[in-house]
Design brief:
Blueprint: E1 23-27, E2 32-41, E3 47-52, E4 61-64, E5 70-72, H1 74-135
């Protein structure tokens, strides 16, 4: 099973994505082994019940979500972190493109307004100049 030996806690908030049934790795004091989250308990959903895959239930254990005895697998990170983030990036890119298109449309309308205003303002000044010069 693929593992991440030097994952940093600041890498991502992977622990907040843990759900019952998720595959992770658990440390038994000698090494890291494939495990599954069987239950999540506690008022704050912070208590995990973990069982080693292909081992007797006598080795199952409780731990806190923040325990150093558990770590994510690469599959867990792909499923829970990387894929959702890439989907979110695609959504944001689509939204960004539509906002840019809308911005260009508004910029074009602004230029039309500026040209119209400048023309009217110029004509107003020309008429005002004629009127003023005729009174002199």
């Amino acid at each position: 099973m693929a593992s991440i030996s030097n994952i940093s806690e600041s890498f991502c908030d992977w622990r907040s994505h843990i759900d019952a049934g998720d595959g992770i790795q658990a440390y038994d004091g000698r090494g890291w082994y494939a495990a599954t989250i069987y239950r999540i308990n506690g008022n704050d959903n912070n208590q995990l019940y973990v069982g080693y895959d292909n081992y007797s239930s006598q080795y199952d254990f409780h731990c806190l979500r923040q325990s150093k005895r558990i770590r994510p697998t690469i599959g867990f990170l792909r499923k829970k972190i990387m894929v959702p983030q890439s989907e979110k990036i695609k959504e944001l890119e689509t939204e960004n493109k539509s906002l840019k298109d809308e911005n260009e449309k508004l910029r074009g309308e602004l230029e039309k307004c500026k040209k119209k205003w400048d023309t009217e303002n110029y004509q107003y000044l020309a008429v005002k100049k004629i009127i003023i010069s005729s009174y002199r």
